[in-house]
Design goal:
Number of strands of chain B: 0
Strand content of chain A: 25-35%
Bound molecules: protoporphyrin IX containing FE
Radius of gyration of chain B: 21 Å
Largest sheet of chain A: 7 strands, antiparallel
Shape of chain A: elongated
Distance between the termini of chain B: 25 Å
Structural class of chain B: mainly alpha
Shape of chain B: flat
Oligomer: heterodimer
Order of helices and strands of chain B: HHHHHHHHH
Chain lengths: ~525, ~325
């Protein structure tokens, strides 16, 4: 019973069905938004389809590639794969060390077969055939049988080796992927010029980590961003992003380098990438009769990648006064601003004429309420509840100031650039690369090579002069055997003729009758 | 020549190649109309029956007395058609070369250029095969037909002005990954068309009658053409996917993230693997396997069109102008 199920699972037919299931299972992952790609898209989908979304969610349709049913399909496929590859590997290993099998009884019944006549005696005739086959890299054995001397030859063992290599590499690749998922992690952070971060989960804006990652085991590395540069073509296509960074152990020596698109920092298997960029406007806030906060900055998130129009918020909870005396600025940043119908827009991603459109609020920000808040926007419920009230709005160029009713002055003091950096650790990566290369090598062997057996039997010709050779070949995989067999027998005929002319120096003389 | 003149030349050559392919299409039609029915005489089995090399895909070109009427005329049309197709392919190559010179980079940085190159590969692959195997000229209509349709759709729907590409595409991996994808896709296109024709040809009763179906090469030949091209395309596609993963590791920070493009490339890969298996599995040989191959091509086309035009992913560089 069990055995029957095992047989069925490891049959090629099952493999085809499972391959199809796998392809089918991947489809919803590309048609529905996935949490692994964009949490926002999933949230939006929930908002747009409030009835459908929870049902889909219960079916793991927003996490297709980590869902139990997706795992079930590929695990079944891989069990099936193991089940068919291991026995084949053992058989192949045996086959490598056993000589080619004896020739079938009736050679001429094979589809690719024929006769050759030679004036040579049976043994030298087979010698000539053997030599020709060895030149073609066949493995050859000779046997004496009741029906006369015969020869079996085989080549193309590498095809089977390629087949096994290919299928085993698939397994290895999956193991590498799994290892990377279990022990890998990834963190992202926006870093403004002049600032930096260290590789700990607390510092990242967002991070994800495999279940077996111990947060104490993160490699200790700190990265500081000195300068970010974006370059553009005339038509404003971005041509390069580069970040000058310094990196090193927290208390060790710094090393400087430049990273950019397609060119991450690689250290000990970890990588640091530039994944995006934007602007960080800075403000100076002067409290009436009190202190001044110089150049406080907050990164604004680009809302339009082509013009880098950005939105964000600057929150100042600690102005020194009471809890209800907090200040916040929410606004819009345009690297190259243009007023259109009273609204500030951006027309160029380069900071040619930076401007901000800001609204200032005073009151209670609700930062310590325990609920998490986005750092890029104000908590709208605080505004609705009247805890935070609008106290002024203005469009400012660098150096211009907004005066608030209580005498506070907010000056747009300048801007810096920020880089979105990503720190990645994937211990399975090299393993996966190796498997992929082995997979490709195996595939080439499997598809391009042919497994071929050739049999020959030599019988004395009926009239007593010379030999009749029966010749046959068996080809497995890879296309048309007939023309190849024809070519082979033509060559063998030539080889026999040459051998005959060597032994009989004057073959033109007809034998006496 | 200035860059804008080169870009204009590229656009004109596009029209020229569509025109040439259309002429070839008509010639192929004429061949199909006036040509002889393909012979179904089998070779005599035996070592001495020699089939010359290079006609591996042919039925039995030698022997078989030609039925009277139309034969030579049909062959002449076939030769003309192949000649015009080759001219078209030359102009088509010119489209890409001048485009590449105009923008000073490889001419496959957006969907227009990519699709144009894929169709070129399909035409070149088919022309090469048809030159070696005259019998395959009988399917020229069914290759050139889709080619002309595809080019018109590309010209009308995907056309993008010659322009530089974004930073992420400025990498030698563009040459490696995208070239492999174009090659694989173009070859799969020929393979898929062969399988469609096989499905038509192998329908019960297709041998009877005198319609165009009976003029197609035999089911066997079409099946072998489909399989051989798929076998050629599959490792190339595998390489394209692997190279894409290597590039993604450098450009996007992970080698595989189930981005829609990645997902559909994987789906296509799995479907083609299933086709190769089906071809050697009892119960799947023949028509079921051919259907799998057709599904494979459908997935490739879906991946190019729907995934680029409708879904959003990291591959959305290919913005359509
Ligand atoms: C139970 C699982 C599997 C079994 C039993 C199996 C078995 C085989 C066998 C016997 C061959 C040789 C075909 C021939 O005779 O030439 C083969 C070839 C191949 N296998 Fe698998 N396989 C399995 C899973 C897979 C998977 C999961 C993939 C990839 C997604 C795959 C991809 C291939 C490819 C591309 C070939 C080459 C086909 C050809 O020779 O034309 N196999 N497999």
């Amino acid at each position: 019973m069990l055995l029957r199920w095992w047989r069925r699972l490891t049959a090629m037919r099952t493999a085809i069905i499972l391959l199809f299931l796998l392809a089918l299972a991947a489809v919803p992952g590309s048609l529905l938004p996935q949490r692994s790609l964009s949490r926002n898209a999933v949230t939006r989908y929930f908002a747009d389809h409030p009835d459908l979304a929870p049902v889909l969610d219960r079916l793991y349709l927003f996490d297709v590639f980590s869902s139990p049913w997706f795992a079930a399909v590929y695990l079944l496929l891989f069990i099936s794969l193991i089940g068919c590859v291991i026995p084949r590997a053992l058989e192949h290993f045996r086959a490598l060390r056993t000589p080619p099998p004896p020739a079938p009884r009736n050679l001429l019944r094979l589809p690719d077969s024929g006769r050759l006549d030679s004036p040579l005696a049976p043994a030298p005739a087979l010698d000539a055939v053997e030599e020709e086959l060895r030149v073609r890299r066949f493995r050859v054995v000779r046997r004496e049988t009741a029906r006369g001397p015969e020869l079996s030859a085989e080549k193309g063992y590498l095809k089977e080796t390629g087949n096994l290599l290919f299928h085993l590499s698939l397994l290895a690749l999956l193991l590498g992927l799994a290892g990377g998922k279990l022990w890998g992690y990834e963190g992202s952070i926006l870093v403004t010029e002049g600032q930096g971060f260290c590789n700990t989960f607390q510092q990242y804006d967002t991070y994800s980590s495999g279940p077996l990652v111990d947060s104490d085991d993160l490699s200790s590395l700190c990265v500081d961003l000195d300068q970010f540069r974006a370059e553009y073509e005339e038509n404003l296509t971005a041509s390069s992003f580069t970040a000058d960074i310094r990196y090193g152990e927290p208390n060790g020596e710094d090393r400087a380098t430049t990273i950019g698109v397609n060119d991450p920092l690689r250290i000990d298997g970890d990588r640091v990438y530039v994944t995006g960029h934007g602007f960080t406007p800075c403000f100076t806030v002067q409290i009436p009769g009190g202190s001044s906060f110089d150049d406080v900055c907050a990164p604004f998130l680009p809302t339009d990648q082509t013009t880098l129009a950005s939105e964000g918020a600057l929150k100042l909870p600690d102005l020194g006064a009471g809890q209800d005396d907090q200040l916040a600025i929410e606004g819009f940043f345009a690297p190259t601003g243009l007023m259109q119908g009273g609204l500030l827009t951006s027309i160029d991603p380069r900071p040619l004429a930076p401007q901000v459109a800001i609204i200032a609020y005073q009151g209670y920000l609700g930062l310590d309420s325990g609920l998490p808040q986005s750092v890029y926007s104000l908590d709208a419920t605080q505004i609705e509840r009247g805890r935070l009230t609008e106290v002024g709005a203005a469009n400012l160029s660098v150096g211009e100031t907004l005066d608030l009713p209580d005498g506070t002055q907010v000056t747009f003091s300048g801007y810096k650039e920020f880089a979105a950096l990503q720190y990645s650790h994937d211990p399975g990566q090299l393993w996966v690369l190796g498997s992929a290369i082995a997979l490709l090598a195996g595939l080439l062997g499997l598809l391009l090579l042919r497994r071929e057996r050739v049999f020959a039997r030599a019988e004395a010709a009926a009239d007593g002069g010379g030999t009749v050779l029966s010749l046959a070949s068996l080809t497995r995989g890879g296309g048309e055997s007939r023309p190849r067999f024809t070519a082979l027998s033509d060559d063998l005929r030539d080889a026999l003729a040459t051998a005959a002319s060597r032994t009989a120096p004057d073959p033109e003389v007809p034998s006496r009758d | 020549m200035t860059e804008s003149a080169l870009a204009e030349l590229s656009d004109s050559l596009f029209s020229v190649s569509v025109a040439l392919y259309s002429v070839a299409l008509v010639a192929f039609c004429a061949q199909l109309a006036f040509g002889r029915r393909t012979e179904r005489t089998r070779e005599v089995v035996g070592a001495s029956a020699s089939a010359s090399g290079g006609v591996l895909l042919d039925d039995a070109p030698q022997a078989a007395p030609r039925p009277a009427g139309g034969t030579d005329q049909g062959n002449r049309w076939g030769a003309i058609a192949i000649g015009v197709t080759a001219l078209g392919a030359l102009a088509h190559t010119g489209v890409l070369v001048t485009r590449g010179m105009a923008v000073d980079r490889l001419p496959w940085g957006n969907m227009y250029e990519f699709a144009t190159a894929v169709v070129l590969v399909a035409v070149v692959a088919y022309t090469g095969l048809a030159l070696r195997t005259p019998n395959l000229r009988h399917i020229g209509v069914f290759v050139l037909g889709p080619v002309v349709l595809a080019l018109v759709a590309i010209g009308l729907g995907l056309y993008t002005e010659a322009a530089p590409v974004v930073a992420a595409l400025r990498s030698y991996w563009l040459a490696i990954h995208v070239s492999a994808a174009i090659l694989g896709f173009g070859v799969f296109m020929v393979s898929g068309i062969a399988s469609v024709l096989y499905l038509v040809r192998s329908r019960p009763g297709a041998d009877a009658g005198t319609g165009f179906v009976s003029r197609l090469p035999s089911a066997d030949v079409l099946d072998r053409l489909a399989h051989r091209t798929a076998v050629f395309g599959f490792p190339i596609w595998t390489f394209a996917v692997i190279a894409g993963a290597i590039w993604a590791e450098a450009a996007w920070g992970r080698f595989w993230g189930w981005d829609p493009k990645e997902t559909w490339s994987f789906v296509a890969w799995v479907v083609y693997a299933a086709y190769l298996h089906a071809r050697t599995t009892a119960g799947w040989r023949g028509r079921p396997a051919a259907w799998v191959n057709v599904v494979g091509l459908a997935v490739m086309i879906f991946n190019l069109t729907f995934v680029n035009l409708v879904s959003t992913g990291l591959h959305s560089y290919a913005d359509v102008g």
